[in-house]
TrEMBL record:
Organism phylogeny: Bacteria, Bacillati, Bacillota, Clostridia, Lachnospirales
Family: Belongs to the SorC transcriptional regulatory family.
Transmembrane segments: none
Limits of the HTH cro/C1-type domain: 17-45
Native source organism of the sequence: Kineothrix alysoides
UniProt key word Transcription regulation: yes
Gene3D superfamilies listed in its UniProt record: 3.40.50.1360, Winged helix-like DNA-binding domain superfamily/Winged helix DNA-binding domain
Name recorded for this polypeptide: DNA-binding transcriptional regulator LsrR (DeoR family)
Amino acid sequence: MQKGNITEAMINEYTKIAYYYHKAGFTQEEIANKMNMSRQRVNRILAECISLGIVQIHVVNINENYMDIEAGLEKKFNLKGACVMNNLIKENIYVDLGMAAGRYIGNFINEGDTVGFSRGRATAAMVDYMPLLRKENLTVTQLLGSANHDREHVAVDDIVHNFAVKLQAKPVMLYAPVIVQSSELQNSIIKEPFFQEAYNTVRNCNVAIVGIGTASGQTEHLLPLNAIQETEDDKEKMERAVGEVGTHFFDAEGRPVIPSYRNRIIAISLEDYLNIPIRIGIAGLPEKADAIYAALKGGYINVLVTDLETAKILKQKP
């Protein structure tokens, strides 16, 4: 087909099919079912994508430009590693991040490690799309309590379970809610022997894999869980907060922001979290750039998996 005979709608359709096949890893049969067309048509479109220049094949230095950006981020933020991927379709950001992180984390997980997770779509997608790592004697745990209203699959206990099943790791669960009604109840739970035993595993994590949230988004998630009302002092504090990792809020410089309900939250302490040697953050999209930047400045993560557009924003920041 000649370029002059192809419409904008066809270009969009062809680009989506090429993306599903070459980036997302769908088979031609899966794409046919997804796009409601025959497998033969999918095959023909994929061939035309090459002749039209929608798909270009490069054998050498395929990620040379990304490597420059990755190296720049590593140097700027003193990171142990950075992985940048190109997200073509915004709606697929979590799948793209998950696939990139799934391929990348094998560089940081060793036999006998204990891996801790936070909740979220990015960390859940990473577990879904990571390859079967050949690592023996892994332990996996949750860095924070669970929330009943979390959608199945993105809840932290689901993520821990799925990782354990996929890699035959030993799961250690907290069996506690992420937030309770009073500091007295929180204090009672964390003193229980069953919790203390589980928390010893959390404290001994070698690797943390976390999402990075905006402060407003995570406040909206936490507060309704126990009908907690923000005080005026909380509202004033949270106006300074830009991001969150593992229930820990921080401002634009990465400094902790501690609301009054902190003592009702059941999660790894900030001190214990920052003592984990490898802290992998998976997050993307420009609207999260300020939160990611603050997390980097505050040392909440020392390995980053993000998308190209966000990486460019982070690199340009002072």
